[in-house]
Write a structure and sequence with these properties.
The protein is of the alpha+beta class. The protein is built from five helices and eight strands; from the N terminus they run ααββββββαββαα. The strands form two sheets. It has a four-stranded antiparallel beta sheet. A four-stranded antiparallel beta sheet has the order 2-7-4-5. InterPro entries: cNMP-bd_dom, cNMP-bd_dom_sf, RmlC-like_jellyroll.
Amino acid sequence: TDCELLRVDRAKFHALMRNIEAQLRNETIDFLNAEWNFLSQLPVSEKEALVPHLVKENLRPDSLVLKQGERNDWLYFLTSGRCQAYRMLSFQEDGQEKTEAFALSTFDKGDMFGEESPLQGCESSLSVCTKSHVTVYRLHRNQLTVLGRQNLSRLVREHAGTVPTDAQLRQRRSAVRTWEAY
């Protein structure tokens, strides 16, 4: 059998890895300082402390990021692309159990999502799917409770979205059905 050996110079390899780490660190700092990002309001010391905990992730279109009914440990900060939030709701119609998807909101650059589970310790009440190629930074829920991160926790709570209740969605569905009947 044919065999090919590669030789890797240890010093060059480590230098390359340091360059890549520095580039990723700079990208993360740029993200934290961006005008469109509400995290830019954090003090410099808190942003510096967050850098090693933010995980950059690239997602393909139609990727399920959050699933309704599952616990989520991450906050997501969208830096590019678009995501759609929706909620599945079951109801009785004509004596049969039916399920319908309700589009709730669209997330774009600068938006945060997934905060419900980390803030409230509950299962996610919605699903989020990518609609295009997406880049997000993820932050684990534990980082919200680290000593000295009160500003982060406050900012996340201030920018947290609201999710309609089942009753509100049923009311919306009823109003749409009534309107369509005309």
